[in-house]
Amino acid sequence: MSARATDVWARALTATLTTHADTATLNAARRLLTTTGTQLNINKGFATAKFPLADGRPVRPRLLVEELTEAQWDRIEAAIAAHTPTPSIIGDHLADPDRTAGIPLLPSAHDLTHTCTCPAAPAGPCAHTLAVGLLLAERLRAAPAPLFTLRGRPYQHIKKNLRAHGHSTAAARVPSPHRVPTSPARPTADAAPFVPAQQPAPMPEPAELDLAAARPVLAGPLPPPPAPLPELPAQNALVADAAHRARALLAGTDQPTGTDTDTGSDLARFTALEHGAPFRQAAIDHLGLDVVAMGHLTLAHTHGGPAGAAAYLHRYTVDHDVLARAQADIQPLRPAPNATVECEDNHLTDQAAGVQLRYGPDGRWHPYLAPYGPWQPVPGPDADPAQAYRAARTAARAHRRTR
After folding, report:
1. CA–CA distance, 271 with 269 (Å, rounded to integer)
2. Tens digits of per-residue pLDDT, 183-239?
3. Which of 269, 321, 279 is nearest to 300 (CA)?
4. 335-385 tens-digit pLDDT
5. pLDDT per residue over 263-275, tens digit each?
């Protein structure tokens, strides 16, 4: 999204922050932004940064933002789904509360709280917390997504929910072939469709087998399994997958990672195999991804295992000190050292270098590039963020050579 398309968000937040600020404090905040290459860390309910004092000691201001409730977010998503043709179109029109169920996304002055560890922090905003707010406003000029995170629901989750909402709406418009017409004696609006309970077929009696004779040959295809068992192709795929995992464990090529494997991570592994490939579209629909994103998920699992896939699918809240140490480690390697490094949840992004690192549940940093727009995983996850950053830069050079 272009900067011009989101100026309304930045202008509104800047006006909220600066309307009642005294001139001296505001000027000091602007000087902080011009003299330091400060990185902004954004999480649910707060934005924070780190500034040095005159004696070199760091201070950590926080701009606290009132989070919206789950019920409010559900109403907002329903309003967005009703007025937005696709989940990716999140623009200036959502700054109007009429488009978000009467609930303003932009925080007012009453929704903001300023805290800082500086020695003489006033009762109201100090220069450090104002600087955090101005940094946030600049971030909103590029994209409004951080605002959604601050207010309690990350933009990626909203897109996924809206995509699922679109699928369910489309499904609701298609009559189900299993529905039984309601009785005319009851109004249609009040009548719930009656679905008869499906009774499983009785198990056949055990056959008398002559083990000494020759084995019988299957004369035809097997009958479909009785409900509610999975269909025969799915059962065959599960058997093949169990055999594949057993062989890998015996060969020592599939060892436990020590991290929990979620459904998305296991689907990335399963659909990359020959017996799982026929179920790729079903996995795409289940995860709410498109074809490109599913390919990136597969790459994330290939390069980083289950934790790499989890880092691609999910966001995690990471302590600010972890992000600050990672920024310090990669600083000597950055081609544009004065450019801003963006921090949001477990993502550390160097837009000037086209590199992003994602901290995974395995304690490693997983490198990403964005050669075609969306971020895609590349090889080289490492517990050392500097090594992961080098891996991303190496992959970027290889990509430029192949173009």
Report:
1. 6
2. 444 444 444 444 455 556 666 666 666 656 666 666 667 777 777 777 878 888 888
3. 269
4. 988 887 888 889 999 988 899 999 998 899 999 998 877 899 999 999 999
5. 888 888 888 888 8
Tokens of 85: 């043709």
Tokens 């579209």 belong to residue: 281
* Exposed/middle/buried for residue 372 (C-beta within 10 Å: 0-12, 13-18, 19+): exposed
Q: Tell me what pLDDT residue 373 has.
A: 79
Which helix (H) or strand (E) is 40 found in, with range?
strand 40-43
For residue 195, what are the contacts with CB-CB under 8 A and spacing of at least 6? 178, 179, 180
Considering Cα of 44, then 47, then 50, then 54, what sign does the dihedral take?
Answer: negative
> Could you tell me the maximum CA-CA distance found in the chain, to the nearest angstrom?
99
Supply the DSSP symbol for 402: H
Residue 177 CB: number of other CB atoms within 10 A? 5
Cα 231 to Cα 133, 264, 278, 330: the distances in Å are 55, 22, 13, 51
Are the CB atoms for 343 and 50 separated by under 8 Å? no
DSSP assigned state of 333: G
Kindly state the tokens that stand for 258. 């020590």
Q: At what angle do helices 280-287 and 291-313 cross, to 10 degrees?
A: 60
Asked if residue 228 has a cis previous peptide bond (ω within 30° of 0), the answer is: yes
